[in-house]
């Protein structure tokens, strides 16, 4: 794996919208939130486009993604928000050229589709909150420091929950080492059976999601199980499952019960409660980097690339 260079104050960064549209009234605050980190934002056309639930047509968004990585003055590519649509870009983008640019990508949620393709080509990318969903509102100190480390370095030694927000919990004890992969469960499960299917072989699989009922989570985890993704992986880290409560609790399993029933027998180290995903404070994760998952101690150490 290759770790792209960290940024320096004054660097120009691309702001793109590869998924959902960004409300135009937020753009000034979004740009200001990037400036607050000491970076110069360059807004690409997709930030101002709307095509139904997409930030422009597939080819328009793909062009922005391609151009952002190709322009020499751009030092990093930051996705302004998620939503839906990144999977629709995959057939229009030359990810070999993107990987060859060796520039970092920042984002999460729907951006998982892009992370998986960049990581597949041996380049680390960053699972981080985004300017159009979190930055412009003002970040708590834990999240802001985590974002600063992702932007400017150095690599964190440990990936740990913020104090007072609950501990990482051991589901299956043991230790495992490997590159961390994954991200949003909906995007990971949608890759199964496609040309872009996630490779979990000997990797630490990280999963999180938002606004999904327990039976939807059940279905997606079962799809990964049936596809052999838990059998292949070295270990599993479950992040935040935000607003995933059932409509009728008496007629539903809990998320914890779903995970226990579908994952509890995989004979791999597994932890839950890792505070990363659609939640604040949140941890920034260098996807593709090697980590040591110590489920006995319920912690993750970053080993490098």
List keywords for this structure.
alpha/beta; Rossmann fold; Glucose Oxidase, domain 1; 6-stranded mixed beta sheet; 9 helices
At the third CATH level, what is the topology name of the largest domain? Glucose Oxidase, domain 1
Strand order in space, largest sheet: 6-14-13-8-9-10-11-7
- Averaged pLDDT, please? 97
Taken together, the total number of domains comes to 2
Largest sheet: 8 strands, mixed
Shape: globular
Give the CATH architecture of the largest domain.
Answer: 3-Layer(bba) Sandwich
Structural class computed from helices and strand pairing: alpha/beta
**CATH level 1 name of the largest domain:** Alpha Beta
Indicate the radius of gyration in whole angstroms.
18 Å
The secondary-structure element order is: EHEHEHEHEHEEEHEHHEHEEEE
- Uncertain stretches of 5 or more adjacent residues: none
As a percent range, the share of helical residues equals 25-40%
In percent terms, what proportion of residues is strand? 15-25%
CATH superfamily of the largest domain: LD-carboxypeptidase A C-terminal domain-like
- Number-wise, the strands total 14
Note the gap between the termini: 5 Å
Account of the 3D structure:
The protein folds into 2 domains: 12-152, Rossmann fold (3-Layer(aba) Sandwich); 158-304, Glucose Oxidase, domain 1 (3-Layer(bba) Sandwich). Strands 6-14-13-8-9-10-11-7 form an 8-stranded mixed beta sheet. The chain has a 6-stranded mixed beta sheet with strand order 2-1-3-4-5-12, with helices on both faces. α7 runs parallel beside α9 (255-263). The chain is of the alpha/beta class and 305 residues long. It is built from 9 helices and 14 strands. The radius of gyration is 18 Å and the shape is globular. The chain has helices spanning 27-35, 58-70, 95-101, 112-120, 141-152, 185-190, 214-226, 229-232, 255-263, and strands spanning 12-16, 40-43, 74-79, 105-107, 125-127, 158-159, 169-172, 175-184, 204-210, 235-242, 270-272, 285-287, 290-294, 299-304.
């Amino acid at each position: 794996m290759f770790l792209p260079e960290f940024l320096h104050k004054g660097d120009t960064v691309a702001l793109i919208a590869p998924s959902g549209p960004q409300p135009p009234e937020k753009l000034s605050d979004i740009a200001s939130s990037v400036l607050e980190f000491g970076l110069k934002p360059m807004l690409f056309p997709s930030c101002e486009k709307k095509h139904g639930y997409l930030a422009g047509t597939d080819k328009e968004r793909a062009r922005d993604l391609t151009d952002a990585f190709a322009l020499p003055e751009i030092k990093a590519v930051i996705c302004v928000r998620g939503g839906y649509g990144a999977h629709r870009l995959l057939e229009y983008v030359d990810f070999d050229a993107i990987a060859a640019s060796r520039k970092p990508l920042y984002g999460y949620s729907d951006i998982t589709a892009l992370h998986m393709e960049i990581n597949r080509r041996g380049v680390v990318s960053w699972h981080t909150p985004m300017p159009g969903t979190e930055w412009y509102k003002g970040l708590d100190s834990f999240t802001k420091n985590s974002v600063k480390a992702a932007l400017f370095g150095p690599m964190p030694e440990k990936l740990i929950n913020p104090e007072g927000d609950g501990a990482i919990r051991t589901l299956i004890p043991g230790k495992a080492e490997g590159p961390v992969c994954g991200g949003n469960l909906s995007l990971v499960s949608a890759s199964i059976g496609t040309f872009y299917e996630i490779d979990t072989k000997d990797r630490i699989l990280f999963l999180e999601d938002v606004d999904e009922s327990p039976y939807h989570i059940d279905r997606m985890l079962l799809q990964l199980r049936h596809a052999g993704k838990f059998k292949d992986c070295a270990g599993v880290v479950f992040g935040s499952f935000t607003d995933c409560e059932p409509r009728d609790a008496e007629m539903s399993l809990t998320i914890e019960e779903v995970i226990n029933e579908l994952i509890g027998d995989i004979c791999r180290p597994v932890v839950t409660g890792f505070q990363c995903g659609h939640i604040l404070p949140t941890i920034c994760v260098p996807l593709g980097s090697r980590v040591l998952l110590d489920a006995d101690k319920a912690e993750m150490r970053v080993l490098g690339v």
